[in-house]
Amino acid sequence: MAQNDFGSAFVLLLLILDPFGNLPFFIAIMRQLPVQRRLPVALREIGIAYVVLLGFMWGGQGFLRLMGLSQPALEVAGGVILLLVAIKMIFSTTSEIFGGGDGREPMIFPLAVPLLAGPSALATVLLLTSRQPGQMWTWMAALSAAIVVTGGLLLMAETLLKWVGDSVMRAAEKLMGLILSAIAVNMLLGGLRSYFMH
């Protein structure tokens, strides 16, 4: 039973983390950095996302109760943030999307949070632990495995960029911006619906 729970949670978390969907965002951020900084920054951001998700898995319910926050509020806030990122992706150049023009490295935002450790992922780990708190170690193992697979795919981003070419990737950035805007609006509406129908 535990093995089946692990497999189900692993697949669910991998779908929520969406490594293939995040590839264009990841490449857009990494291409602004010097080559020698890309791997350390990528590992750092993936690690931060893992720590955030792990922390939310262990203390998310208590934190929300302590702050008087609800899951709908989390969804609405995350939807607004992602919508702003999506709008910039669609209407700005790559260097403007993530503030790369000043040469600063991304730190936490936007790769670690909210693209990897976003509202959907946070809500998913909360759901797993609230429904079956006795299987915390199973959920931790599933999260760890999902992060390893996601991180491995994201670290192959530069190779994928060489395969598909720069112009195709720029078009993918605009397309992913459109898709992300739809996801953000859906998340925002879902949070509002949950709030008003509670």
Automatic annotation (TrEMBL):
Major subcellular site: membrane
Keyword tags: Cell membrane, Membrane, Transmembrane, Transmembrane helix
Places the protein is found: Cell membrane
Membrane topology of this protein: Multi-pass membrane protein
Any one cellular-component term (Gene Ontology): plasma membrane
Keyword Transmembrane helix set for record: yes
Any Pfam family hit: MarC
TM ranges: 6-29, 41-60, 72-91, 111-130, 136-155, 175-196
InterPro entries, per database record: Multi_antbiot-R_MarC
Family per record: Belongs to the UPF0056 (MarC) family.
Protein's name in the database: UPF0056 membrane protein
Taxonomic classification: Bacteria, Pseudomonadati, Pseudomonadota, Betaproteobacteria, Burkholderiales
